[in-house]
Write a structure and sequence with these properties.
Largest interface: A-B, 30 and 31 residues
Strand order of the largest sheet of chain B: 1-3-2
Shape of chain A: elongated
Helix content of chain B: 40-55%
Order of helices and strands of chain B: HEHHEEH
Number of strands of chain B: 3
CATH architecture of chain B: Orthogonal Bundle
Radius of gyration of chain B: 14 Å
Number of domains of chain B: 1
Number of helices of chain B: 4
CATH topology of chain B: Arc Repressor Mutant, subunit A
Oligomer: heterodimer
Number of strands of chain A: 1
Distance between the termini of chain B: 13 Å
Largest sheet of chain B: 3 strands, antiparallel
CATH superfamily of chain B: Winged helix-like DNA-binding domain superfamily/Winged helix DNA-binding domain
CATH class of chain B: Mainly Alpha
Helix content of chain A: over 70%
Structural class of chain A: mainly alpha
Largest sheet of chain A: none
Number of domains of chain A: 1
Number of helices of chain A: 6
Radius of gyration of chain A: 22 Å
Order of helices and strands of chain A: HHHHEHH
Shape of chain B: elongated
Structural class of chain B: alpha+beta
């Protein structure tokens, strides 16, 4: 009995045409796109998260001795944390929880590259700004905010895909 | 013949779509999955039972404000099986 089932399954694989496989992959690409849409934060929330992150970095890069920019860092951090918590809570209410930790190797690599990118932007913004290049804090803040907004909009699942229809 | 592992269990359209949704998320609620796949409770339950028996999907029943919700997630075995299956399909198409 078991052998017969295995044989049928094997034949199913052998008999699968290219068109059938292509159709399956297209349906998967469509499901993946729909899931990405479900996971994607609304634009206003994406804007709040990205803006508060960029503002926090700008404030930190502008902090000198006893000026008031540290207050900007604190306010931005509070807004950012609230926005992220709200996003996670909203997702839970919608019945779909986004991944917080990577599950696969490709996600781990993508997350690692993002961490290097954001870490570099943060460190460079501060270092260059401290060296009296006034526009560095503005540039760093804008780059970080745009990069975060882009990543959250196009890669809400935390998985990098080559092109929009990787499975096509 | 392909090198990637073709998995007949998740090859069925609905089961494949369940895996495709779960692989991108941490957890999905049963109701959301049912609405997205446009199937009945019994049909989805049947598919999920097969996947659970193969240890591809984990079902967590949780109570919230007096109501019970079923949350589904993909296990490591399910993740590997799905990835390998997609690779096998891509090999058939000639994308790899």
């Amino acid at each position: 009995m078991e052998t017969n089932i295995e044989l049928i399954m094997h034949n199913e694989h052998e008999n699968m045409t290219v068109a059938e496989a292509k159709s399956k992959l297209q349906s998967l690409a469509s499901v993946e796109q729909e899931t990405d849409l479900l996971l994607r934060a609304p634009l206003w929330l994406n804007f709040i998260m990205s803006f508060s992150y960029g503002m926090g970095l700008f404030s930190w890069a502008s902090t000198r001795h006893e000026n008031l920019w540290m207050l900007g860092v604190i306010i931005s951090a509070v807004v950012f944390i609230f926005a992220v918590v709200f996003y996670l809570y909203r997702s839970r209410l919608l019945g779909i929880k986004p991944k917080v930790m990577p599950k696969s190797r490709s996600e781990l690599v993508f997350g690692f590259l993002l961490a290097i990118f954001f870490g570099s932007v943060t460190a460079l913004t501060r270092v260059i700004s401290v060296n009296e290049i006034w526009w560095a804090s503005y540039a760093g803040g804008v780059i970080a905010a745009l990069a975060l907004g882009f990543t959250m909009h196009y890669y809400p699942s935390g998985e990098y895909k080559k092109g929009k229809h990787q499975n096509d | 013949m392909t090198n990637a592992k073709f998995d007949p269990l998740i090859h069925a359209q609905n089961r494949l779509q369940v895996c495709a949704m779960l692989v991108l998320t941490a957890e999905i609620e049963f109701k959301v999955l049912r609405e997205k796949l446009d199937v009945s409770d019994s049909v989805l339950s049947k598919h999920l039972k097969s996947l659970e028996e193969a240890n591809y999907v984990r079902l967590n029943k949780r109570k919230n404000m007096g109501r019970q919700y079923t949350w589904l997630s993909l296990t490591s075995a399910g993740h590997i099986a799905y990835t390998e299956h997609v690779k096998a399909l891509q090999e058939i198409v000639g994308n790899v």
